[in-house]
Specification:
57% helix, 8 helices, alpha+beta, 3-stranded antiparallel beta sheet, Beta-Lactamase
Length: 246
């Protein structure tokens, strides 16, 4: 326990110090480096901090990254103000994606696995967050996540059921494991079950529906991919909650 307390304190300190330090280090490249690239660098810093700390450290890192990105890389420079709509969107997305991946990294830490830092995984989370910010249609977010899940988990197909819990199919849980009945299914050895697996979508603690995953026989999606899938489902649930479930 003391080991984790010390580790968490160091992570919280890093959450306050690392984002402004990295942002300052990138200043010489400000004119030639797109703001979206800087934002992705900051997201990686957030993931690294969250992986070595707790959710508080991850949340602080996400907020700090957004604040210092605003200060150093949005006009007017060196002021906590944003004037361009594109920069406003980038700051919001940095915060949203930073918070999402910090939660993902915290889950990974609890499971004692390496945090998700793969650029492809981060890009999928970023794309969904960007869509959720730019569209008023929760259905568009659900459709986008449905397509992402097919590719991410190497599925034969995927569909979304609104607000239904019929039957007792295998279920992909928040920690990336699969529960079938009262037993855990050994995904890492057997792959996903050869029948539809449900992945529930929650928003603000409310159930809005579930993604029904149709696995490819013999395919074994890694734990990191399964954790990203859960995060994408959470983003879809948040979009449905914001839209009132419609």
């Amino acid at each position: 326990m003391p080991h984790y307390l010390d580790r968490d304190r160091i992570a919280i300190l890093a959450a306050l110090v690392a984002p402004p330090a990295i942002a300052a280090a990138l200043l010489p490249f400000r004119t030639g480096l797109p703001n979206t690239s800087v934002a992705l660098v900051m997201v990686v810093i957030v993931v690294a901090i969250a992986a070595n700390g707790n959710r508080v450290a991850g949340a602080l890192a996400a907020i700090s990254a957004a604040v210092w990105f605003d200060f150093f890389f949005t006009q007017p420079y060196h002021r906590f103000a944003v004037t361009k709509p594109a920069d406003v969107q980038t700051v919001i997305l940095l915060l949203v994606v930073g918070l999402a991946v910090s939660q993902l990294a915290a889950r990974a830490r609890r499971l004692q696995v390496i945090a998700v830092t793969d650029a492809g995984y981060l890009a999928q989370i970023h794309d969904t967050a960007e869509l959720a910010q730019s569209t008023k249609s929760s259905g568009a977010v659900v459709d986008h996540v449905t397509a992402q899940l097919v590719d991410l988990l190497n599925l034969r197909g995927c569909r979304f059921e609104y607000g239904t819990l019929i039957g007792h199919p295998p279920r992909l849980e928040q920690d990336g494991t699969v529960v079938w009945g009262r037993k855990r299914w050994d995904v890492d050895r057997l792959g996903l079950p050869d029948e539809e697996v449900e992945l529930r979508a929650f928003g603000n603690g409310r159930f809005h529906g579930r993604f029904m995953l149709d696995p490819t026989p013999g395919s074994i999606p890694p734990l990191q991919a399964r954790l990203v899938a859960v995060t994408l489902a959470d983003q879809a649930g948040a979009a449905l909650d914001t839209a009132g479930g419609g």
